[in-house]
Batch of 2 targets.
Target 1
Amino acid sequence: MANQNSLPLHERIELRYTLHKVIEFIILFLLLSLLVHRLLSFNNHGFAWLIAFLCELSFTLNWVITISNKWNIVEYKTYPDRLLQRVSKHELPPVDMFVTTADSKLEPPIITINTVLSLLAVDYPTNKLACYVSDDGCSPLTFYSLSEASKFAKLWVPFCKKYNVQVRAPFRYFSNNNATFSSNDSSEFKQEWTLLKDEYEQLSLKIEDAVGNSIPFDVSQDFAVFSNIERNNHPTIIKGNVFCQPTFDEILAPPLVLWENKEGVSDGLPHLIYISREKRPKHPHHSKAGAMNVLTRVSGLMTNAPFMLNVDCDMFVNNPNIMLHAMCTLLGSENETKNAFAQFPQIYYDGLKDDPFGNQMVVLWKFAGHGIAGIQGPIYAGTGCVHRRKVIYGLSPTDTKTGERYPNIGSGNVEMLKTFGTSEEFTKSAGDALQGNTERENMSSKSIEAAHRVGECEYEYGTNWGIKVGWRYGSTTEDILTGLSIHNKGWNSIFCTPNPPAFLGCAPTAGPDSMTQQKRWATGLLEILLSKNCPIFGTLFGNLQFRMFLFYFWVLSWGLRCIPELCYAALPAYSIITNTHFLPKVSDIYTTSLEYFTVHSSKIFTSWVVINFFC
Ligand SMILES: O=c1ccn([C@@H]2O[C@H](COP(=O)(O)OP(=O)(O)O[C@H]3O[C@H](CO)[C@@H](O)[C@H](O)[C@H]3O)[C@@H](O)[C@H]2O)c(=O)[nH]1
Ligand SMILES: [Mn+2]
C-alpha cells in the first residue's frame, strides 16, 4: 500500500471525448463548406446573401473558439482525507470568509444570514476562520439579523458538527427534513433537532417582524449608529462592543464586531464581523469591487489570513468540506507558485427547468468550465472562490522571493505606501502577507484606528487599489476583470468540483430580473473588451496563453453575439418582403451531392446551434 504521505492531494484527470471531437469537426467542416458555397456564388445573389455570409462567418468563428475551449476537458479530484492525514488541524492555514450584501430589500436578510450560518459551520478549525459581512446598504435590518443569527449560531454550529449535517444553511436543512426521522436517529438527535427547528423558526419570525417595520431593536443603543443615515451618505461610524467582546471592541463601524472567538478555541465559533464602509455621494464606491477591497484591508488588519473565500450573500455552503477541498489544490510549494485561486462552479437551487433565461450558465460551467480547466484554469466568477491574499496583493508566480517585487518591505517603504495606501499598520500587515508571515498580534488601539481609516472612501486615492492590487475597477463584472489580471500574470486557477456541490445559489426566476442582470453582465464584459484590459494585450505582452485569450474573447464578446443572431433571424422576413432568398435553392443544391449535404445539414445545424447555444 502506498504511503499516505506520498499520495497527491489532488489529481488532474484528462477526459477524452473522441466522439464529441469528431462531431465537432464535422460541424466545422459543414460550416466551412457553407461559407465556401456562399463565396463561390456571390455574383448571382444580393444583399441577403452577403448578410447571411457575414452572420455565418461569425457563427463559424464562434464554433472554432468553442472547439478550442472544450479541447482539453479536465476534471480535478481532491482528497481532503489525505490532507488531514498529512497535516494536523492546527497546522491548517487560516481563511478569511467574505460575504457581500448591498440591499436588504432585494437581498432579504434571512437569505444573507443563512449564507453566514452555513459558512460559520464549515468543517474547519473555527479558530482559523473569520467571517466578514460587508453591507453596502448600511441597513440596521441586516445588522440586527446578523446579531440574532450569531446567537443562534452558538447552537447551530455545534449541532451541525455533532451530527455531521450536510446542508448547513438552516432554511434548506429544515425544509428538506420535514420532521421525518429515520429509525436510526437517536432520541437525543430528535430532541436537539426539534429544539433547533423551533429556535430557527423564532429567529425567522424575529427577522420577518423587523422587515415588517416593527423594529424590535433599540435605536438608542447598539443600533444608534444607524439612525439618521442615508445608505449612500453615511460617515465612518465609530461603534463599540455589540455583544461580547474585548480586543476587537470599539472597532469602527465600519466594522462592528458581532462575535469574537476570544479563547481561540478550535471548536468554538469563528469570528463574525459586520462592516459597512463609508459612503459619500461625490465619491465613487466601485460597487462590489470597492466593497471587496475594504473587506480585504479590514481583514488584513484584523486576521490577515493567507486565504480568502468570497461568496455572494445568496450562495450558501452545500458541502461542509469546501475549505479542505480548496486547500488540497492550494497548499504545498508547487501549488504555491502555480495556482492562484480555487474556483467552485456556480450551481443554483430551485432554478427554472431547462434554464429558459440562460442565467444559470449551464454551458459555461458544465462544458466550458471543464474545458478551460485544461488550459490556465477557470475564470474567477465573483463567488465561491478561494483566493491567495498575496496574489490579490499583486504578486506574480515569478516573484518567488517577495523581496524582488517589494524591496525593503516595511511600514515606511515608499513603494508599499504608494501601492497599499498611507496606513502604516496596513502596509505592515500587507508586508507580512506577502512574506507568508501569518502570525497576528492582538489588535492595539492603533490598529483599531487604522481599521477605521482603511474603510474610508478617500483611503484609496492615489494608491494602486483597484488598478494593480485588489479587486479591479473599471467594469461592472469586476470578477472577470480581476481573474483576467491574475491569469495575465501567468497564474493558473483550479476548477474545484466536489460532490456534493460546494455552493448553491439563487438565480433570477423572472424575465425582467434576468434581463437586468444580463444587461449588466453584457455591459461589464464589453467594458473589459473595449478597454486597455482587453485580453489580447495579456497574450501579446503578458503571460495569458493564446487559447485562454480565445476563451476570454468568447466570454467578453457575449453581448455582441446578439447582432448576427438577430440579423440571421430577420433574414427570412426580409427575403419574403423583397422577394429574394438567402438560403440556396433546391435546384442549386442538387448540382453536387456535397452541396446538398452541406446546405441541409448546415440549416439543421444552424437551428441547433441557435437553440442550444444562443437561446
Ligand atoms: O455595490 C454593490 C453591488 C453588489 N454587491 C454585492 O455583490 C454581489 C453580486 O451582486 P448581484 O447584484 O447579486 O450580481 P449577480 O449578477 O447576481 O452576480 C454575479 O455577477 C457579479 C458581477 O459579475 C459577480 O460579482 C457575482 O459574484 C456573480 O454572482 C451581491 O452579493 C451583492 O450584494 C455589493 O456588495 N455592493
Ligand atoms: Mn446575485
Target 2
Amino acid sequence: MGHTSVTSPRRISPRGSPPHLRRTPPKFRKVLVLKEKRSAEPENPVMDELLLSSKLKRVDSATGCVSPRVPAGDALPSAVSVPRPAQKAPKTPYVILPACDAFEKFRKISRVSVDIGGTLIKVVYSSVMDDELPEESLNGHARKYAYEDGKRVLVNFKKFTDLDRLIAFLKEIWTDRKSGDVIHCTGGGSYKYSEIIMKELGVRLQRTDEMRSLIFGVNFLLSTNVDESFTYHHDAIGINKFQYRPIAADLIYPFLLVNIGTGISILKVDSPTSYERVGGSSMGGGTFMGLGSLLTPAQNFDELLEMANRGDHRNVDKLVCDIYGGAYDELGLKADLIAGSMAKCNRFGEAPMKQTHKPEDIAKSLLLMVSNNIGQMAYLYGTRYNLKRIYFGGYFIRQDPITMRTLSFAINYWSKGEIEALYLKHEGYLGAMGSFLDEDGKLDD
Ligand SMILES: Nc1ncnc2c1ncn2[C@@H]1O[C@H](COP(=O)(O)OP(=O)(O)O)[C@@H](O)[C@H]1O
Ligand SMILES: CC(C)(COP(=O)(O)O)[C@@H](O)C(=O)NCCC(=O)O
C-alpha cells in the first residue's frame, strides 16, 4: 500500500508513513494498558470501553451527518447506549429501547437471538429493568424510555465461545420460555446446531439468512441508536481519536458493509431490503487467529492482539528501504512501506532454528497484513460501486487501534479522502441484532 507524489531524492523518512510505522504516542499507551487489564476479564470485553463511554466527540459534517440525529419520516426513535448505571442493571453491554409501539412487544415476552458463526456465538436478548436509571445517564436524549409502570426494555449483548455455555446461559436467563416460543437464530450454526438447540431449550428455531441479518442489524443500529457509528483518527489525542458520526435516516444509504468475522463478506447496501453480497475473502479474523496461534505462543485472541500492539513489524517485514536502500520514488513508494509481509522470516539456507523472531513482532506483522489487505479490498469495492461510506463490522475489529488505523489509512489514502471508513459500537453483533428483529424468519420444527 502507498503511493504519494514523493519527488525528493531517495531518503528514509517517517513523514507521511503508513500508520503502522509511527510509534504509539505515550498518552495512548495508557489507554492500551487499560485495555489489557480489561481484556483479562471475560465478562468485560474491550468493546465495553466505547459502549460505556459517554465522552466520544460528536462531529457534524458537510456530508450530511447531523448532531444530534433527527429521525425522519416513519423512522424508529433512537435507542440510547448508557454508561453502566449503578443499580440492578446488567453487567454486560446493553441499550435501552425507547418506550414506543414498535418495541412494546419486547416488554411482554422475552426475545432471544443467537448468531452462531465460524468462531464466536453472539447473543442479543431483551430484558425488562425495574429500577430507575440515574437521570443524567439519559441526558441529551429527549425521548421517553420508561413505560407508565416505570419499566424499561433493554436489549443485551453477550458473546460465547462454546455452545454448551450458551445453552446453560439461555436456560438461566430465559426462564419464562414455553414450548411454542421461538429462538431467533442466524449464522452457519443456525443450520448445524438447530436440533441440539431446539432439544435443549424446548423451543422452536426461527432462522434468518446471515446476510439479511447483517443488513437488518446495521440498519437498526444506524437508524435508531444515537452515536452508533464513529470514525477513528489515530493522530488525535486521547478520546478525540474516536469521533461520533451520527447520520440522518434519509442519508444512510447507499454504503458498503465489510463484515470481518472468521471470513469476510462484503455487501453493497442500497436500502434495508435491497442489498447484494458483492464479494468476500477467506483472509479474515480466522486467519489472524489461526496463523497467530501457529506462529506465536498466544493462548487466545486477546493475548494475540495485545502482543501485536507491543510488536515492531519492521523486524519481520521487508520494507521498501530493505530492498531499495530508500524510497522507490519513481513509483511513489516510501522507504518505510511494507514491501513483503514477514519476508524477513525466510529461513531457507540458514542453519535450522538459527533465526529467531519475537512473537510480538510476528503478531504485529500478521495484524497489519490482514488489515491492510482488507482495507485495500474494501477500497476497491467501494470505488467499484461508487460508495462514499464503508462501515466495518465483525468481531475481528474489537475497536483495536492498529486495526482501525490501518483500515482507515488504507481507505483514506487510496481514495484520496473521498471515501470514509466508519466503525460501529456493536460491530460484532450486527447479525444477532438483525435476527433479533426479523419477524419473518423461517421456522424449524
Ligand atoms: N474473544 C475472542 N475470541 C475469539 N475470536 C475473537 C475474539 N475477539 C475477537 N475475535 C475475532 O473475531 C473473529 C470472529 O468474528 P465474528 O464476527 O464473531 O465472526 P464469526 O461469526 O465467524 O464467528 C475471530 O476470528 C477473531 O479474529
Ligand atoms: C462463509 C461466511 C459467510 C461465514 O460467515 P462468518 O462465520 O465468517 O461470519 C464467511 O466466512 C465468508 O464470507 N467467507 C469468505 C468466503 C469467500 O471467499 O467469499
